[in-house]
Each structure stands twice: as structure tokens, then as C-alpha cells.
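User: Run a structure prediction on this.
Assistant: Running it now.
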Amino acid sequence: MEKQSALLEKLEPLFEKVEALPKPQRIALFVGIFVLIVGSFVYFFYFLRRKVCIKCVNFSCPLNKVPKNLVDSYLEKNPIMKEAWEASGYKLG
């Protein structure tokens, strides 16, 4: 609880400055912050899908974009995984 109150005490001058802004500037500030947050999320998922998800062996993940021929060759080399995937309805080839 002490950490929260210490943080609020440090942020209080910033809150006062924001409250002192005219309403249009306050709205512009919040819109800018919103755009930065949304842009960060979009870039995070873009980076994830382009750099990380194309190498992932979690084939059931909705973000996974490994080509089907690589998934099939991986499953051919792993008979236990192949059985589990075929039991769930996956078709090789």
C-alpha cells in the first residue's frame, strides 16, 4: 500500500498539469496515448507473426503460420505427435 501511495504522490504534479490543460488539448493528449497503445499492440502481433510464429512447433496455435508441408514432415518424424494429430482429425498430405 505504501508503494501505491508513494507512486501517486510522485504522479500528482503530472495529474495537476493534465487537469490544467484546456479540454481540446486534454482530448488530443488522450487520443495520442490511445493511438500509441493500439499501435504498440498491432506492432507486437505483427512482429510475433512475422518473426516468431513461423518457427513455432505449437501447430494448434491460431497465430502459427508454419507451412503445411513442414508440419507434415515434422509429424512424420514424430509418431506420437502424428497419432495425436490424426486422432483429432488432422489429415497428412
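The longest helix spans residues 23-52.
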